[in-house]
Each structure stands twice: as C-alpha cells, then as structure tokens.
Write a structure and sequence with these properties.
Layout (H helix, E strand, L loop, with lengths): L1 H9 L7 H9 L10 H13 L3 E8 L2 E8 L1 H12 L10 H7 L6 H35 L8 H33 L2
Length: 184
C-alpha cells in the first residue's frame, strides 16, 4: 500500500522530499492507511533500488535535501498497482474492540468511552473539512477546479467519503450513547 501511495504522490511530477511525502500523507492518505516516517524511508530505498524512483541531493540554506522523482518504470509500476485488486478492506476499530468487552466497564465508563470516541470523530471530521477548504482555496489560487483538474476531483471524492463516513459514525455512536444511558 505504501508503494502505491508514494508512487501516486510522485506521479504528479513534482520532486518531493521524504518530509513532503510524510506531510502529504498526514493531510490525505493517513485516513486510508496508517504510515509512519519509519515505513516511508525503507519504501523509498526499495523503490529507488528497483528503479521506480530516482533521488537527487540538493543543498538549500545550508541544508541537504533529498528530492525524489518517479521514473518511467515507476509510472508503469504505479499504473499496474492501480489496476490490481488490493483486496477487501478490513475494518479495524479500537472502539469496537473495546465495545466487545464493555461488560467489564461500569455504565459511566462505557458512556465516557463513547463520548471520547464521538469527540475523536468530530475532530477528524473538522480536520477533513479544513483539508477540503484548504484544497479548494489552493486550487482556486492555481485556477483549477474539480471539473478541469481530475486529480483534484478524485481526491475530493475520497474526502467527501471520509466526511460522510465520519458523519455516520458520529450519528451511530450518539444513538448508541442514548441506548447505554437507558440501561439499568
């Protein structure tokens, strides 16, 4: 999965540093899959070894930066990965795991757990709204729109799914909270 993400970011034809890739993932693909800088660096090394990307060191303000670019074979690899079935999604939720064993908690502890989960999803939802608004502003400044810039359109589609999903989770857990409140 990380190979697909890195090649995807580099497919936009902008040279990126490891830091740029990590920040880009934090503002987008982190909601699909968890990735750390410790996972990104080995993946970059492997991609470069396989000839899918190249790197060039650049000194700027007395700091050395390593910039990565996608190669033609990297584009072919990205295209192939995009056409593969990545398998079914496996939903993992620490809150659902905790709920499975809710019998071990008091009613107050269960309610607190649910409240924390709702708050976390509201925070995530606000992050997604901020990402959407920042992206729309950036595209507007560049003279791009969702209609004339396909990457922006599909990135926005994934973002809208994230917003709809977080809205569903918040509503579901608000109802669940009420059910737990009514327990004796």
């Amino acid at each position: 999965m990380i190979e697909l993400i890195i090649l995807g970011f580099l497919s936009y034809n902008y040279p990126l540093t490891l830091y740029d890739i990590k920040k880009g993932m934090e503002r987008s693909t982190e909601y699909f899959t968890s990735t750390s800088q410790g996972a990104i660096h080995p993946a970059l090394v492997k991609l470069e070894k396989n000839g899918y990307i190249t790197s060039k060191e650049e000194v700027k303000n007395n700091r050395t930066k390593k910039l990565y670019r996608i190669t033609d074979s990297g584009r072919e690899r990205f295209s192939m990965l995009m056409r593969q079935d990545l398998g079914s999604d496996k939903y993992k939720s620490t809150q659902l795991l905790k709920m499975f064993f809710f019998h071990e908690l008091t009613k107050e502890e269960r309610l607190e757990s649910i409240n924390i989960h709702i708050k976390n999803f509201r925070d995530m939802q606000q992050d997604l709204v901020n990402i959407r608004d920042e992206g729309n502003l950036r595209h507007e400044e560049m003279g791009l729109s969702l209609e004339n810039h396909k990457p922006a359109k599909y990135e926005n589609d994934a973002l809208e799914f994230g917003l709809a999903y977080s809205n569903f989770v918040i509503k579901w857990f608000e109802e669940y909270f009420k059910r737990i409140q009514e327990e004796s």
